[in-house]
Specification:
Length: 132
């Protein structure tokens, strides 16, 4: 399997970075995955955009590219297990500011798939090699 370029981000990774930037702009510089998932949901008019497992896979891939950093944080008040927290790195802040706008990314994704007018309306002819 060929490895993607370090600079290439798939749409879910772009969405994840944009949501992290929105949290950053709200002075929430450190966040956990659940908060990021809620941010993604709020950006999509309340419908879930990604499963939680997909959010965490995106965060892992973004961390491999040094766009997001993670660390464990202990909440002394609850006494629960440590939480994995995330924050945008300087490189992540730079990259997210260079991403195309959401509509541009959606247009690029749609341009790669055939439109309704490009899909033939009649089925292909029967295979002449098939016995009749």
């Amino acid at each position: 399997m060929r490895r993607r370029s370090v600079d290439h981000l798939v749409p879910n990774e772009q969405r994840t970075l944009r949501a992290a930037l929105q949290l950053h702009q709200q002075d929430i510089t450190q966040f956990h995955g659940y908060l990021l998932a809620k941010q993604l949901k709020s950006r999509s008019a309340g419908s879930p955009v990604m499963a939680y497992s997909t959010v965490y896979r995106c965060l892992d891939r973004l961390e491999e590219r040094d766009l997001i950093a993670s660390f464990e944080a202990h909440d002394g008040a609850s006494g629960g297990p440590p939480r994995r927290m995330f924050e945008l790195t300087e490189r992540g802040l730079t990259i997210v500011s260079e991403l195309p706008a959401d509509d541009e990314a959606r247009f690029q994704l749609d341009a790669a798939s055939p439109t309704q007018s490009q899909i033939p309306s009649t089925p292909p002819p029967d295979n002449p090699r098939e016995p009749t």
